[in-house]
Design a protein that fits this description.
The complex is a heterodimer of chains A (68) and B (310).
Chain A: E1 3-5, H1 7-13, H2 18-25, H3 29-36, H4 45-55, H5 59-62, E2 63-65
Antiparallel strand pairs in A: 1-2
Chain B: H1 7-29, H2 63-66, E1 86-91, H3 98-104, E2 112-118, E3 121-123, E4 136-141, E5 144-154, E6 161-169, E7 173-175, E8 180-185, H4 187-223, H5 230-260, E9 269-271, H6 274-277, H7 280-307
Antiparallel strand pairs in B: 1-2, 2-8, 3-9, 4-5, 5-6, 7-8
Chain lengths: 68, 310
């Protein structure tokens, strides 16, 4: 898929673990893992908003379009 | 090149074709040619001899023997049947008397005959006392099988045609009770074919059992709340394809019989209408399963999308 999820990059920049992010965003580890590994087919705006709020970043920092 | 299928486009077309075929079959089955009328024929042939030599001594309740003429029945017939082919055989004597049959039928081997049965092939048989241009009547005379039919001949000197009734010898026999073709074979051939048919029958039975178990597992999964799974989709697809293809497979196997036994077939042998009449039900049920398959496939796709939405 040409949409790349850079969640792991942002997590590394903020030195935050998946468990901590999961607890602070309020979604399960399994769902966060789906998002992190790029298997997700859709992301709710409220989830994106929560992640951006916790990681203090813009949606563009997490999602990137790569023309294949 | 990536080929993408558009099943949603094919579903209305398939159902439309099914309804068209069903309507056409209904019209064909209920169609009687308006212009067909009996023809005048020159008939010098003696009537069918339906009586066994000592019919006069036939006791009441011995109707068993009265059917030995004209291959009406096959004594102590044994064999197996599948949808399109089978075997039969036993004592059958066209020229034997009742007394002879009563004393020799168990021990005599000369009049034991063996046949391959083709239940989906019959002759253009007419039971009417009048003759039509396509009338065909089967009978046996001195252990030789004949078709009595109308033959048209051009008169010498003028353009008029005359219809004659003629006995045309044929290689096949005919079960007049059940109306299907019988191909004479040796006992060894009959036994070998029975072995093959038994294996084929068991394989078919096993496959049928597998389909039923698949359907039961599908229902069990539904009751557990596991509706939209790959297994259920595969099960529905298999049942749908089997039901839709079954009549076509039967038709092809039936045509194959014509190719294999082409030496025995004449233009008076036709396919039984039941091949088409009985095909509508499995195709109809198959289409219902196909629609279910498509619905469950779409449901599975939506479920996946839902599951992968974070």
């Amino acid at each position: 898929m040409p949409i790349i999820v850079n969640l792991d990059v942002m997590m590394a920049k903020r030195k935050m673990s998946l468990t901590e992010l999961s607890e602070r965003v309020g979604i399960t580890m399994a769902n966060l893992s789906i998002l992190k590994t790029g298997k997700a087919k859709a992301v709710r705006l409220e989830t994106l908003e929560a992640i951006c709020r916790v990681l203090d970043c813009q949606p563009g920092d997490i999602l990137e379009f790569v023309n294949e | 090149m990536k080929i993408t299928s558009r099943p949603n486009f094919w579903i209305p077309i398939t159902i439309g074709m099914y309804l068209t075929a069903a309507t056409a079959l209904y019209l064909i089955n209920n169609y009687t040619p308006a212009g067909q009328s009996s023809v005048e024929v020159v008939d010098h042939l003696k009537p069918f001899d339906n009586l066994i030599p000592d019919k006069a001594s036939l006791q009441e309740g011995s109707s068993y023997y009265s059917y030995s003429k004209n291959a009406m029945a096959y004594h102590s017939s044994s064999g197996i049947q599948t949808g399109f082919i089978g075997t039969t055989g036993g004592f059958n004597c066209d020229t034997c008397s009742i007394k002879w049959i009563a004393t020799h039928s168990d021990t005599d081997s000369r009049h034991r005959k063996y046949y391959i049965t083709l239940p989906l092939w019959k002759i253009k048989n007419t039971t009417s006392i009048f003759w039509y241009t396509d009338s065909v009547k089967f009978h046996t005379e001195n252990d030789q099988n004949y078709l009595r039919k109308v033959v048209t001949a051009q008169n010498k000197g003028n353009k008029h045609q005359t219809n004659y009734v003629a006995d045309v010898p044929v290689k096949f026999a005919y079960d007049q009770t059940n109306q299907y073709l019988l191909i004479p074979v040796t006992k060894t051939t009959k036994n070998n074919i029975e072995i093959v048919l038994r294996i084929f029958g068991f394989a078919l039975l096993a496959y049928l059992a597998y389909l039923i178990i698949s359907f039961l597992n599908f229902i069990v999964d539904l009751s557990k709340g596991l509706a939209f799974t790959d297994k259920n989709i595969a099960r529905l697809k298999l049942i749908a394809i089997t039901l839709i293809l079954y009549p076509f497979a039967l038709f092809l196997l039936n045509q194959l019989m014509r190719v294999v036994f082409y030496n025995y077939f004449t233009s008076d042998v036709i396919m039984n209408k039941s091949v088409w009449q009985n095909s509508l039900e499995p195709i109809g049920i198959g289409l219902v399963f196909f629609l279910l398959y498509r619905a469950f496939a779409q449901g599975k796709s939506l479920k996946d999308e839902h599951d992968l939405t974070v």
